Automatic annotation (TrEMBL):
Gene Ontology CC annotations of this record: membrane
Matching InterPro entries: ROH1-like
Coiled-coil residue windows: none
Domain of life: Eukaryota
A Pfam family assignment: ROH1-like
Record-given protein name: Protein BPS1, chloroplastic
Major location category of this protein: membrane
Family: Belongs to the ROH1 family.
Signal peptide feature range: none
Length: 357
C-alpha cells in the first residue's frame, strides 16, 4: 500500500514552518582541521544509518533490529562526547542557548527511555499467562484446555492494552522536532561544527524514537516523516532508511495485524492456529490429534521463548541508551561546575591583585 493510499496520513510536523531549513556552513569558514573533524563525524553517521537499513522488510520491527537501533543511538550519542573533546571547545565558550537546548533535549530523551522501559516491562508481564497456558496445554483434558483458553484470552487482552506513558511520547517527540532548529552560532567555527553534528544525531534519534512509539502504541499516526536537506553527507542514507521503514510500518498497520512487532505477531499466529483445536477439546477430547497438538504447542513454546529473549535484549538496549544520555548530561554538568570553580578562583585572584596594587 503506497502512502498516497493511506487513509490516515502522518500528522503535520511543520505547523509553523519547516524547522529543518538549517543552512549548512560554507567550507571556507572552517579551517581544514575543523572541516576534517566534521566530515569524519558525518561519514561515520552515514555509515551507521546504512547499517540500520534492513536487508529485507521482514527485519523491520523485529526485536533484534530494534535492539540494533538502540545500540546505534548509543554509539551516536557517545560520538558527540568524543567530538566535543576533539574540538577542544571549553564549556566556558558554550553559548547559554546551547546548554539550554542540550539539557532540554536530554530530559525529553530520558522521559522517552523511561516510557519505552515501562512498555517493555508491561509486555514482559504478558509472559506469565502465556507460560501458564503452555503448562495447561500439556495434558490433553477438557479441564486443562478450558484453563488454557482463558489464559490465552488474558494474554491477548494484556498485550492489546494501552500504556498511558507511551501515549505521551508523541507530545515529547513533537517537542524534539521543534528543537531541531538549532540556535544560530556566531563567531565560533567550532560551535558551528558542534551544532551541525548535534543536528544529525537528533534527526537519527527522533526517527528511531518515533518508530518505537508507533510500534508500541499501535498507531501509524505516531510516525514522523522528517524532511532533511541534501547538504548533509548522511542525508541520502537517512532518507532511504526512513522511507523504507515508515512505509512498511504503515502497510502493516493497514493490514490489521495483531501487532506490528514481528515476535508478538508470530506468537499470536500460533495462538490463532491452536485456539480452535483446544476449544474443540474442551467438550470433545477426540477432536484433538495428539501429534498435531504437540507440534503446535512446541511451536508456541518456541515463539514465546524467542519473544521473551528478544524483549530482554531490547530492554537492555533501551537501558544502555538511557545510560548514554545520562552520562553525557553528567559529563556536561561536571564540566560546568569545574568551569565555574576555575572562573571563581580566577576572579578572586584578580581581585586580590587589585587590592595589592
Amino acid at each position: 500500500m503506497s502512502r498516497s493510499q493511506d487513509p490516515h496520513p502522518s500528522r503535520s510536523i511543520f505547523p509553523f514552518g519547516n524547522p529543518f531549513r538549517m543552512k549548512s556552513h560554507k567550507g571556507s569558514h572552517l579551517s581544514p582541521q575543523l572541516l576534517g573533524v566534521l566530515q569524519g563525524f558525518e561519514t561515520t553517521l552515514a555509515e551507521r544509518l546504512r547499517k540500520l537499513m534492513p536487508k529485507s522488510k521482514d527485519e523491520i520491527l523485529s526485536l533484534s533490529w530494534m535492539t540494533f537501533a538502540m545500540k546505534s543511538l548509543c554509539e551516536s550519542h557517545n560520538d558527540i562526547r568524543t567530538l566535543i573533546t576533539d574540538l577542544e571547545l571549553p564549556v566556558s565558550n558554550w553559548d547559554d542557548k546551547w546548554v539550554d537546548v542540550y539539557f532540554d533535549i536530554s530530559t525529553k530523551l530520558l522521559d522517552i527511555c523511561n516510557a519505552f522501559s515501562s512498555e517493555l516491562s508491561r509486555l514482559n508481564q504478558g509472559n506469565l499467562p502465556l507460560k501458564c497456558a503452555l503448562h495447561h496445554l500439556g495434558p490433553a483434558s477438557s479441564k486443562s484446555f478450558l484453563r488454557a483458553c482463558s489464559l490465552l484470552d488474558d494474554w491477548r487482552r494484556h498485550i492489546n492494552a494501552k500504556n498511558p506513558r507511551i501515549e505521551k511520547c508523541s507530545t515529547i517527540l513533537d517537542g524534539l522536532v521543534g528543537s531541531l532548529d538549532l540556535p544560530k552560532v556566531k563567531n565560533s567555527a567550532k560551535g558551528k561544527v558542534l551544532m551541525q553534528a548535534m543536528y544529525g544525531i537528533k534527526v537519527e534519534t527522533v526517527f528511531v524514537c518515533s518508530v518505537f512509539s508507533a510500534a508500541f502504541s499501535g498507531s501509524s499516526k505516531k510516525l514522523l516523516d522528517l524532511d532533511v536537506a541534501d547538504v548533509y553527507a548522511w542525508a541520502p542514507a537517512f532518507k532511504s532508511l526512513q522511507n523504507l521503514v515508515n512505509e512498511e510500518i504503515r502497510v502493516r498497520f493497514s493490514s490489521g495485524k495483531f501487532s506490528v512487532l514481528n515476535e508478538l505477531e508470530a506468537v499470536d499466529a500460533v495462538v490463532k492456529e491452536l485456539y480452535p483445536t483446544i476449544q474443540g477439546g474442551v467438550n470433545t477430547e477426540d477432536k484433538v490429534e495428539p501429534e498435531l497438538h504437540l507440534k503446535t504447542v512446541e511451536e508456541l513454546g518456541a515463539a514465546a521463548e524467542k519473544l521473551s529473549q528478544g524483549m530482554d535484549l531490547l530492554a537492555k538496549g533501551v537501558d544502555g541508551f538511557f545510560q548514554a544520555v545520562l552520562t553525557s548530561r553528567d559529563t556536561l554538568l561536571s564540566s560546568l561546575r569545574f568551569d565555574k570553580n576555575v572562573n571563581d578562583r580566577v576572579v578572586g585572584r584578580n581581585m586580590d591583585q587589585q587590592v595589592v596594587y
